[in-house]
Amino acid sequence: MDRRSTLGFPPLLGDGQGHYRVHLVGNSGAGKTTVARTLGEILDLPVISMDPIFWKPGWIQSSKEEFQAKLRAAMEEAERTSGGWVAEGNYLSHGGNILHDTSTDTIWLDPPLLLYFPRLLLRTFRRLFGLQQTCSVGCSESVRETFFSKESIILWCLTQHSSNRTRNNANMREIGLGMGANIERRRMRRLGGWGTDLRDWLADVRQAADKQEDHGHDSQDLDRKKI
């Protein structure tokens, strides 16, 4: 299923009242963080990244209870102050399903491995040389961990590409727009290909957000005239 299969739907569903809780999923390096920041700017919503919530300084993992508590707190704060959020990350085994269950929109970034693996390599080298911020404060990347460890992000990316697709294809069959078995919870769309689908979708989101903002201004003007 590609973007053409969801052209009959708005780029984001929201909750029907102009509020959005968007969850971006996909393999490491697929572009979740970059797209989340772009969406956050378009929608004027805070971005919740799960890596800094999960990892403590020195690559110490948060317990499942800690992770879920911090994630819920971030979600509640974002909804209280901004009416919604854009979140990125998986962490299903630690409670990332909290986002899966409460999002109004789930966006699966699924570019070809040949497209995003070189980007992940570049990002990794930039982090090794201190040219790019690491995924969490106090979690520096080392040559040993990067190239000679079972925990290598490069190895993780390669080994998780197929399983990530299997898991998210199953989710699409359950909640995919226009196809999910759970009709009431259909909210997931896949953005694959070599970049055109993603660029076009972001353009559609920006256009819809601009229209919503213009409508809000028109409503305010009408209210002033009534006064």
From TrEMBL:
Matching Gene3D superfamilies: P-loop containing nucleotide triphosphate hydrolases (3.40.50.300)
Domain of life: Eukaryota
PANTHER family membership: TOXIN, YALI0E33011P
Official protein name in the record: Adenylate kinase
